[in-house]
Fold these 3 entries.
Entry 1:
Amino acid sequence: MRRSLPDRRTEMGATCRFAAGGFTLVEVLVAIAIIGILIGLLIPAVQAARESSRRAQCANRLVQLALAAQNYHSANGSFPPGVDRSRSPKSSVFVFLLPYLEQAALYEQWQSSATSDYQAVAATVLPELICPCDRIPQNPLVNPVSLTKYGLTSYGGNGGTRSFDPSSPDLMADGIFFEVGPGSRPVPNQRSVGIEDITDGISQTLLFGERSHYDPNYDSFAAQGWQQTMGEYGYWTGSSGNLSLGDVTLSSFAPINYRLPFSYSSRAAADPPCNSSSDFVYYADLRLCAFGSRHSGGANFAMADGSVHFLGDGTSLDVLQALSTRAGGEPVSLP
């Protein structure tokens, strides 16, 4: 009797159905590896896109600050002071700009002499004064001495070549924002800056820049009671004490994104020495003057003409100082 051969079509169909019913271990591992590679490629791209978006938001906020300052100038014939010491409470550049940042009601509240009004305004957190990349641990912050709440800002007006400490004999007023009034420093009766005073050119003179609240090494000294933490500086109204100028201005005393190069535990290697809280003042002044940000590689700056530029960490101190002075006469171009 002749044996029938197996139907090859039936056999192949069964094989195909079996193969289609699952994956081999090798196939699963290959798929996982491909997915891992894709995720590894995607995460940096997403992070870069987010950083680009945050940097653009920050730049836009600096544009708005520059426009507000220009509108203030049009209305008053000069830019606002960094701090007006003739008023009580002392008013900062950001207070004066409130009506030009769509915060006229808040400005009127500040003008009130009632203590409750002062505290309410000082505690206000203004999103337009905060960079989305800035890490501010607590905002508003409770002042440990006065127990007053203060809203913080990620920006500072250009104070020139030295903006901190306001009581330092080396304080300068060669930028755009500094103290005015009978008690102004470093010279009494300083007046606000007008565009005609910016002989270096408004496109080559800084108006505002970023402040970074991140510096673990600096904070290690604060933990020893030598200073406040970095997160405790930058009241947008300025403080009620004598350090108000340091809250609202920055300068070119230090390079962009200068951070303390040593911690409290490694301070023995510092040059100049940093063996005491009085020695630390030199480093505190450097850090508290410094423009900087949490953006990668530099910080955003608004110029006096309203344009915004990103200056890299590698910008030389000579160039930064030339950009920070209003009438230094230095030949300089943006990096």
Note: The chain has one domain: 42-324.
Entry 2:
Amino acid sequence: MSDIFQEVEEDVRRERYEQIWKKYGNYIIAVAAVVVLAVAGYQAWQRYDLSQRQQVSDRLREASQAVQTGNMPKAESDFAALTKNAPSGYATLAKFHLAGAYLAQGKRDSAIALLRELAASSDPIISSTARLRLAWTLADASPKSEIVTLLEPLMAADNPWRFAASEVLAYVDLKGGARAQAQAEYQKLSQDTAAPAGLRQRSAGISEFLKANPPNGAPSASPPPAPNTSAPQGQGTKPK
């Protein structure tokens, strides 16, 4: 008897499935087709996007090689093109390199304008990198008040950029003739265990040099140079 009931139940279930398929089968097929096409389209877009990014990466590498060989006009042209038609992450990186190409050719005003544009970015990493780069660019010729205002957003006690910003300000004081203040600032940086190791070492070297060569004494050697700012530093900018 139980077998009969089971067969009846299976027949009813089969009949229901057939009714559902007759009523909704076309819709089910259409939805399945859309899903398949969407997956195929997404995979095709991924392949296209990867190809495009590889091409942009190759162009960026070619422009960087022009810098290494000293062909700055070509580097400027290549980086400028990338800022206009590359994906946003690559375009931003190209702008930083373009600013460096401008500076290498003495086009200081163009470099400063571009760095100011980057400093206004809503992305804190881009903005912070640009502020630091711009501060070094202005450090030799602009008043300290302008540098302080520029670096103020980086000076908070919990900001990871505060050490690099403090190094710029110490350099500005040194260039301005405030050797004692600069020496104290460099010494403080050299003793701050939270600061990057390279910055501590560099600050210690400058501090010792200033201490060993007072203003009225004959310097025994040149102080260690300021850090190279030809490329974004600190947290950097990852192409997107």
Note: The two ends are 68 Å apart (CA to CA).
Entry 3:
Amino acid sequence: MPFIEQDNVYKSAVWMNWGAAVGQTNPDPAKTINIGVIWPTWDSVNPSGNTWLRQTRIPIYQCPSDPTLNHGLDWQPGDASYAGNFLVFGGMQNVTTKPSGSNYETVWDGQANIPATFTDGQSNSILFAHKYARCEARGTGGTWWMRGVFHGLSASSGEPSTGGQQDSFPGDRLSAVFGGGRSRDEIILTGPASKFQVQPALPLNSAANGGKCDRRLASTPHAVMQAALADGSVRVISANITPATWYAALTPGGGEVLGSDW
């Protein structure tokens, strides 16, 4: 957050006093209250506007052309139009691993490192791409910038209880991620099947009502996909790129040779 001119949002997440009224924060760690459980970051309060941190609008995370912005659920306006490539941030080794009580802090952390984990080349590896804020063709889903952070497990879920509330595993159907990953309620498409959607029809409609937006995929409101690469550049990707080439650009260390359509 400090790197995108959101330092106040960052401080709100770090120094939240559990016992403070909405809109109040306590920057003194000696005066915060130890409630004996893992502090749910998304339940921190943003003092600007007296609302939950998870509902804070981050302008740089929103594309003005995204037709699904401001159509989220209770977290508005914390929706987003971009997502991260799981194969980079979660890691290819975790692409099908289901989060559980023993691995929830590591299964979605691939420990990406520039340049060490980008053996295919930084200019050939996608970090971020467009993804609609909401997609309804496979049920309620979409992209919220703060979704997928660890909140806590409950004993009723069959996992060891940490005393927190069971709200989300990393990488669920509302997380800002594409290209792979798994949670209790969703398997995000990987391999060639992960190719992005271009202007999917009726993204706010269910499949039964003509909706085509698949929450498991990157999706763009433009005629082409725009993606940020690991070398810091932004690339315009044709809708005609083959699924194989797209997937090869998602794998930072797969050893593939990108096709001529890259």
Note: Residues 16-25, 33-39, 151-168 have pLDDT under 50 and may be disordered.
